[in-house]
Design brief:
InterPro entries: Isochorismatase-like_dom, Isochorismatase-like_hydrls, Isochorismatase-like_sf. Keywords: Hydrolase. This is Cysteine hydrolase family protein. GO terms for molecular function: hydrolase activity. It is a single chain. This protein is an alpha/beta fold. The chain has a single domain, classed as Isochorismatase-like (Rossmann fold, 3-Layer(aba) Sandwich). 36% of the residues lie in helices and 16% in strands. The chain is built from 8 helices and 6 strands. Strands 3-2-1-4-5-6 form a 6-stranded parallel sheet, with helices on both faces. The longest helix has 14 residues. It is globular. The mean pLDDT is 91.
Length: 204
């Protein structure tokens, strides 16, 4: 892997998922505590911020009446019924832990569902930067992470999913996807193992 050809895609790092006051905090709380996803992600960003690695975030936003969702089911129905990720609300904002990196992270708007490539220009941006390797971190493991990872693979990117920088709905789900599902189309590793692949010297 080369820094210049690698992109880190951050998914779901918003208050409604990761803040204790977030509407959907309970969805990922158990798994996040086990994987230490926030502290690991911060360490990841601290080490990558001074490299040529492309770092993008793909937040999900909805209008107040959720006109973007037509007869939603599953978690999208839950999002609508609970009024999560509304534009302009604290819950839709990036978590505080990422604020210090905001000048280094490129925000790619438009995400309205599971796949970060749908309704966004993410693929175009990756191609503009001649990206070959896509590294994925965030939430939710079994939904947006899996959907985006599969799509990236189908588009021809080499996919890596960070097991200690992703959160599922349960610990079992996290382990099942990292051990049995993701390896079908991606490399699965910790963020420190990624540093080894990039030959990056770690910092504390």
């Amino acid at each position: 892997m080369e820094f210049q050809k690698t992109a880190l895609i951050l998914i779901g790092y918003q208050n409604d998922y990761f803040s204790p006051n977030g509407i959907l905090y309970g969805v990922v709380e158990e798994s996040s505590k086990v994987t230490n996803v926030i502290s690991n992600t911060v360490h990841l960003l601290e080490c990558l911020t001074h490299t040529p690695t492309l770092i993008v975030t793909t937040p999900i936003f909805f209008t107040s009446n959720y006109e973007e969702l037509i007869e939603p089911i599953g978690i999208l129905k839950t999002i609508k019924e609970s009024n999560a990720f509304q534009m302009g609300t604290p819950g839709s904002e990036a978590i505080e832990a990422l604020h210090s990196f905001q000048n280094r992270i490129l925000e790619v708007p438009g995400k309205r569902g599971f796949n970060a490539f749908i309704n966004t220009n993410l693929d175009e941006i990756l191609k503009q930067h001649k990206i070959a390797d896509v590294v994925i971190a965030g939430a939710v493991t079994s939904i947006c992470i899996d959907s985006t990872g599969r799509s990236a693979h189908e588009k021809g990117y080499h996919v890596t999913i960070l097991s200690d920088c992703t959160s599922a709905r349960t610990v079992f789900e996290q382990e099942f996807y990292c051990n049995s599902i993701f390896p079908l189309y991606a490399d699965v590793m910790t963020h420190t193992e990624l540093f080894c692949c990039l030959e990056l010297t770690m910092t504390a």
